[in-house]
Amino acid sequence: MADVAEAAGVAVSTVSRALRGRPGVSSAQREQILRVADELSYSVSASASRLAGGRTGAVGVLVPRIDGWFHSTAVAGLQERLHEHGLDLVLYRLQGREERTGFFTRRAFRHRVDALVVVGTTLTPDEEELLAEAGLPVVGISTRPSGRPFADVDDRAGAAGATRHLTNLGHERIAILRSTTLLGTHGAVSHDRYAGFCGAMAERGLDVPEAYVVSAPWGLEGGAQAMAELLSAATPPTAVFAESDEVAIGALRTLRRSNVEVGRTMSVIGFDDHQLAELLDLSTVAQPVHEQGRTGGDLVVEALEHGRVAEPERVLPTRLVVRGTSAGH
User: Fold this and answer.
1) By its UniProt entry, which Gene3D superfamilies does this protein fall under (predicted)?
2) Which of 195, 206, 278, 311 has the fewest CB atoms within 10 Å, i.e. is most exposed?
């Protein structure tokens, strides 16, 4: 920029205003500066321009894991939307308690990103307060930060629909496989899906024995472990609702290794419509994960451009997908 200013015989600040279309430069002077810049093959650095205006042009994304299908799919949709608006994505993995504590207390992200997106992570009240003090826009995807915009599905209604599907098939002894987080707790999604399950069971006057509520770490191994525990019950259930497809897939592995005929002796339904669900003929509640990511991107862009979001709560629909792992009893 200094070379352009010297060649045009003007101050660097004048060149900066002219190249960015700012006022305070005459038409003739702007035309001369643009001509000189073109002759010198000078182009404005997008990152430098954003920094000069107090923006980094980057959005921070908080995820508990980067190897899970749900999180990677949601982040892919988010990145597509941000890229369309010239925004970069900075990924922060908050896998363990120590990583989370350090991230929220140090808040090094404040000067690196213009906004934060929380994907599938339930924030504690202390974490929400620390984010509020940072003064950045915050958006949730598959999580609902207090008072913040979010893109989500109705987990309670989706779980209730899955449970009604099983009761309509004649099942009465229905168990639920709950997922715990990396911190060993049940997140907001688990609480909502459990509430939907219990509500649908109560509608039919059906009890949920304590032995039919099994919690295990999220994922294939957790699902396999939880299903093994259910099979050891004095009276095993005839159907199982798993809070996610990856848990359900782990449960299917245990059932098949135990020679339990899936869809006859035991019905299984999951939640997500994971990319392997169709291959494994798994009944499930499909949610638009990629679209949640893109919708979250819309919320971020609107918050950055206008300082507020006109429609902050975006709840996308789910749908029941019936396949071979659920059948009449």
Assistant:
1) 3.40.50.2300, lambda repressor-like DNA-binding domains
2) 311
